[in-house]
Amino acid sequence: MRRLVLDGALDAGLLERELAKAGPLRLELTAAPRTPRLDLLLAVVRAEALVLAAFEGTLRSPLAEVALLSHAAEFPEGALLDLDGALLSTLVGRVGLARARRLLARSAVVRAGDVLPRFPGPLGRSAAAVRIAGGLLASAAPPAGLMALEKAAFAFAMALPDRAEGIRAFRERRPPAFDW
């Protein structure tokens, strides 16, 4: 898995280039870069990569928003997200409006474990297939359009190198070694 440390010295162009590459990216959130906040968030939303946020302690905006936009996260028990001044659409998109209201009624600081899915590791899953499935689940196409998208995604997944590794692993009775 590729790794990138998001800190104040990170070049915005490097971040965008890494997010545009295929394959999973472990984004270590340490400090907000000099990139304008909306540009940073849009770069994460538009990412081709499967984004894994990794952090410790308390994240403040915009890093908390980046974590909420990521596919999964790695964080220690007791990690917090300080959403004071954050765009709340990132939280609402993650947990829904009713739950976001309940969480924020107490405080603008929420436990990361309450709103972020933990990254369980590859668990024998192909990163490319997970990314494709996530795109299909997020699609707002009508049922007939979804069927066409699913058919195209299946054909694409069958052409990936992970397919051959999955078949080899099955035949050899071992867990697959997908490139995460």
Short synopsis of the structure:
The chain is an alpha/beta fold and 180 residues long. The protein has helices at residues 12-20, 37-45, 63-69, 89-95, 97-106, 112-115, 127-138, 143-158, 161-171; strands at residues 2-6, 25-29, 51-54, 58-60, 72-74, 80-82, 109-111.
Describe the structure.
The protein has two domains: 2-115, 2-enoyl-CoA Hydratase, Chain A, domain 1 (Alpha-Beta Complex), CATH 3.90.226; 127-171, no CATH class. It contains nine helices and seven strands, in the order E-H-E-H-E-E-H-E-E-H-H-E-H-H-H-H. It has helices at 12-20, 37-45, 63-69, 89-95, 97-106, 112-115, 127-138, 143-158, 161-171, and strands spanning 2-6, 25-29, 51-54, 58-60, 72-74, 80-82, 109-111. The strands form two sheets. The protein has a four-stranded parallel sheet with strand order 1-2-3-5, with helices on one face. Strands 4-6-7 form a three-stranded mixed sheet. Strand 1 (2-6), helix 1 and strand 2 (25-29) form a beta-alpha-beta unit. The longest helix has 16 residues, at 143-158. It is globular and about 50 Å long. The model has no long low-confidence stretch (mean pLDDT 85).
- Share of residues in strands: 5-15%
> Mean of the pLDDT scores?
85
Q: Please tell me what the overall shape is.
A: globular
Assigned CATH class of the largest domain = Alpha Beta
Radius of gyration: 18 Å
Biggest β-sheet: count, sense, barrel? 4 strands, parallel
* Strand line-up across the major sheet: 1-2-3-5
CATH-scheme architecture of the largest domain:
Alpha-Beta Complex
Low-pLDDT stretches are: none
Order of secondary-structure elements: EHEHEEHEEHHEHHHH
The chain-level structural class is alpha/beta
Number of domains: 2
**Number of E strands:** 7
Number of helices: 9
